[in-house]
Amino acid sequence: MYVMNNEYPSAALERAVSEFASLPGIGRKTALRLVLHMLSRPDREVEEFGRVMESLKRDIHYCKVCHNISDTDVCLICANPRRDSSTVCVVENVQDVMAIENTMQYKGVYHVLGGVISPMNGIGPSDLQISGLVERVEAGGVTEVILALSPTMEGDTTNFFISRKLSHTGVKLSVIARGVTIGNNLEYADEVSLGRSIVDRTLYN
Amino acid sequence: MYVMNNEYPSAALERAVSEFASLPGIGRKTALRLVLHMLSRPDREVEEFGRVMESLKRDIHYCKVCHNISDTDVCLICANPRRDSSTVCVVENVQDVMAIENTMQYKGVYHVLGGVISPMNGIGPSDLQISGLVERVEAGGVTEVILALSPTMEGDTTNFFISRKLSHTGVKLSVIARGVTIGNNLEYADEVSLGRSIVDRTLYN
After folding, report:
1. Minimal Cα–Cα distance from A199 to chain B, Å?
2. Which of B39, B56, B94 sits opposite A46 (nearest CB)?
3. Which helix (H) or strand (E) segment is A158 a member of?
4. Least packed by Cβ within 10 Å: which of A155, B31, B134, B195?
5. Which domains does chain B show, CATH number per domain?
6. Given phi > 0 = left and psi -120 to 50 = alpha, else beta, which region is A112?
7. How far apart are CA A84 and CA A140, in angstroms?
8. Alpha carbons within 13 A on the beta-carbon side of B74
């Protein structure tokens, strides 16, 4: 045989490709493209990229109140006296916090679960920050908990679990509105959302 | 204002997102997803990822003969006595070497240019390994140079430039065949390739 046994011409190259390909949504072809892009960049930049990744898990901290990613012990939202700490919005992850912050419609605080209950993926209630939420409500000062999880089977299961865990506290529980999306033609709305939008109609005023 | 001034809840998070977003084809949303994925992985794996990237440019070497990526001074293809070193296939980059190797149709050696002449992107002949190719042919022992660059304007320009630089050596110059792609219906072939396939028809035997 005159062809190479190995797919890659270099073990160092293959190692770097494998590292990139270990990321979600990045296949080996894309990974190779990324590595070759790296090789075309200045040494300093590539080393900096490596250093940031190496110390990533040491550099990132979580707010001890809401479990959002934070540079400080208590995150900027929880520490902000202008935020209404009596309203707690329960979300899945940091992206959801950022999405809700971007709406500029919410002035309460958050509680980041770190996921939703998903037996298929082996994620049970104990893998999430649910007991921390219960303790937070039990400690007093919280008047409303808003459930803002994804409107999926897993999200609904998690909502139900949390509602049972909080039932003894008597806290007001709400869930974000489900209905037709704004800006889309009604004929393209899915049946379930359209049905829900009729049942949950609000007063026009 | 009760909303955050900063898009990201943490400077460490933002730094890591920026690093990923500096890669081609990765936007800030994907970058955030990649960072959060990293945070869900074991410390050891994330640190290893960082270390591999940090030392990437030190770990990767280039073959001093063909400029392909290699772990050794002379790459495995150039060092293989079963490869025909009198035939040199000129390619743009390491992906093209891998693609041609995968065909298992080539037993010669390579010369990796590191790109093609592209005035639009500020890449001139001196940015490519063209003088090295000329020296290689001038040194003797090479009987044929196969031009296997992309069939684009830039590739054709580079082919023309190389052919002029090599004209005094008298080496046999060939270019990979252009025509209709195999396995596709003829009605979907583009006019230029179809036209070329008629002009460059080969004997049916």
Report:
1. 32
2. B56
3. helix A153-166
4. B195
5. 11-59 (1.10.8.420), 75-185+191-197 (3.40.1360.10)
6. beta
7. 14
8. 7
* Contacts with A118 from chain B: Cβ below 8 Å: none
Q: State the complex-level ipTM.
A: 0.78
Eight-state DSSP code of residue A147: E
pLDDT per position as a tens digit, A27-84: 999 999 999 999 989 999 999 999 999 999 999 999 999 999 998 899 999 999 999 9
Interface contact flag, B2 A80, Cβ < 8 Å: yes
The candidate with the shortest Cα–Cα distance to B23, out of A20, A59, A24, is: A20
For residue A67, the chain B residue with the least C-alpha distance is B9
Stretch B25-52: mean pLDDT = 94
Q: What is the residue type of A158? A: T
CB A86 within 8 A of CB A108: yes
Q: Which residue of A has its CA nearest to B20?
A: A49
With an 8 Å Cβ cutoff, are A70 and B9 in contact? yes
Chain B residue with CA closest to A21: the answer is B49
Measured CA to CA, the distance from residue B143 to residue B138 in angstroms comes to 11
Which residues is A190 bridged to in the sheet? none
Tokens found for residue B14: 């933002």
Residues 6+ apart with CB under 8 A from B20: B26, B30, B31, B34, B35
With tokens 């209630």, the residue in question is: A125
